[in-house]
Amino acid sequence: MARTAKFLALLMIPLVSSLIRFHANGAEQSDAEIAQAAFAIFSARCQKCHGPGESNSADMLLDREAMVGAKKVIPGKPDESVLYELARETDPAGRRMPPVGDPLKSEEIAVIKKWIERGAPNWEIPKADR
Ligand code: HEC
Question: How far apart are CA 85 and CA 51, in angstroms?
Answer without folding.
Answer: 20
